[in-house]
From TrEMBL:
Name used for this protein in its record: Strictosidine synthase
Pfam families to which the protein is assigned, alphabetical: NHL (PF01436)
Keywords: Repeat
Coiled coil feature spans: none
Family annotation (PANTHER family): NHL REPEAT-CONTAINING PROTEIN 2
Organism listed in the record: Rhododendron griersonianum
């Protein structure tokens, strides 16, 4: 849920995408990842930061809308936490994780999550 309570964000693990659901209109839109033309495409995945459908995620399994309005994504098979700005740029970028699975605490650039 966003900070206004009017938008719900959801992950779609199988299609490796993040969608926004407008609670006022009932509509939905693709924010990041996935295939913008064929939502059932399960083979458009990877690890690429960017904007919109140029973003590649791999089986995201969680989203959180922070108090700052930013969306934090658990990009599970890439072993990273990514951040999406839904209001302005729609840009996604890695904020933590190396891309390697592990159990290593530390600075965001060296931390490893399983």
């Amino acid at each position: 849920m966003d900070v206004t309570g009017l938008c719900y964000y959801r992950f779609e693990g199988e299609s490796s995408s993040i969608r926004a659901l407008d609670l006022k209109t009932g509509g939905s839109r693709l924010l990041a990842g996935g295939d913008p033309f064929f939502a059932e495409n399960l083979f458009k995945f990877g690890d690429h930061d960017g904007a919109g459908s140029k973003v590649l995620l791999q089986h995201p399994l969680g989203v959180l809308c922070g108090k700052d309005g930013q969306i934090y994504i658990a990009d599970s098979y890439n072993h990273k936490i990514k951040k999406l700005d839904p209001a302005t740029s729609k840009r996604v970028y890695t904020v933590a994780g190396t891309g390697k699975a592990g159990f290593k605490d530390g600075m965001t650039q060296i931390a490893q999550a399983w």
